[in-house]
Amino acid sequence: MPPNQAPVLYLPHGGGPLPLLNDPNHHTLTQFITGLGHKLATPAAILVISAHWETSQPALTAADNPALLFDYSGFPAQSYQLSYPAPGAPKLAAQIAEKLQQAGFSPQLNTSRGWDHGVFVPLLMLRPQADIPVLQLSLLKGLDPATHIALGEAISFLRQQNVLIIGSGMSFHNMQAFFRQDLVSDAQVEAFNQYFIDSLQPQYSYAEQAKRLINWQQAPDARLMHPREEHLLPLHVCFGAAKGSTANVLFNDTVLHKAVLAFGW
Fold first, then answer.
1. Which of 39, 78, 167, 196 has its CA 20 to 30 A from that of 244?
2. What is the tens place of the pLDDT at every residue in 39-72?
3. What homologous superfamily does CATH list for 8-263?
4. Mean local confidence (pLDDT), 121-127
5. What residue spans define the domains of the chain?
6. Element holding 119 (H helix, E strand)
C-alpha cells in the first residue's frame, strides 16, 4: 500500500447501542473493533457510509459539529446520553461533493442531520478519543448495487488523502432471525458469507469481482440473509472505493455472524 494511503473497512455496527452496553453477545465484536483501533494508523479524517441513511442522491453531513442521532428505541437511558464530540469536516464534504458531481451524481450537503448509530457506535469502539474529523455519506434509495460500487469509485481519491473510509453495516441482517433460532442455520450464514469472501479473491479481476457483488442475490439464501439489503450495500461502496486493493477477512463472528473486511490493509 502506498505511503499514507488509508485502508477501507467494512464493519458490523451490531444491534443498536448493544456493543457499548456490555451485551455478552457483542463482547467479542466490541473487543475486536476496540483492538483494531489501536492497530490503525491515524487518519486525517474518517468517512462513514452507514446502513441507516438513504437519500435520492448522495448526501454528506456538512456541519461543523454534528449532533448524534439516536435512531433506536427501547434501550436503557444511558443509550441516549452517549457522546461523540468529534468535529465535522465541511470543507472535505464540499470537496467530495465536487468529485461526486464530476462522476454524474447530484450530491447534497446536509448541515442539519446528526450522525446515526451506524456512525457513532463503531467509532466509539474504534476511535473513542473523538479527535479526528468525521463525516457521513448516505446510501441511495433504490439500493442498486452497481450504483453503490460507482459511488465508492467516485470517492476512492480520499485514500490518497489518508481518509479512512468505513462501510458500517452487517454481512448478515435478518431481524426476525435474531429472535428466532430456527429461522436461519449457522451453515446457511457461513455459506452466504463465504460467497463474498470468495468473490473478493485475487483470482478474479476487478470487473469479475464487481459482477459477483452486483449479482449478490445469486449467493446461497441471499434474501434470507438480507430481506432488505441496506446493511450489505456499504460493502459495495467500500469495494468501489478500494478499486482493486486486496480484501482480507479480519474477523468472522460465529455468534452474531458478522464479518469485518479490510481492503488494502
1. 39
2. 999 999 999 999 999 999 999 999 999 999 999 9
3. LigB-like (3.40.830.10)
4. 97
5. 8-263
6. helix 117-126
Question: What number of CA atoms fall less than 13 Å from residue 259's CA on the CB side?
Answer: 20
CA dist., res. 127 & res. 132, Å (int): 8
The C-alpha R_g of the chain, in whole angstroms, comes to: 17
8 Å CB contact between 144 and 232: no
Q: Residue 204, Cβ neighbours under 10 Å: how many? A: 14
User: Which grid cell sits at 10?
Assistant: 467494512
Q: Would you give the distance in Å from CA 110 to the centre of its chain? A: 19
Residue with the three cell numbers 463503531: 122
Length of the chain: 265
248 forms beta bridges with 262
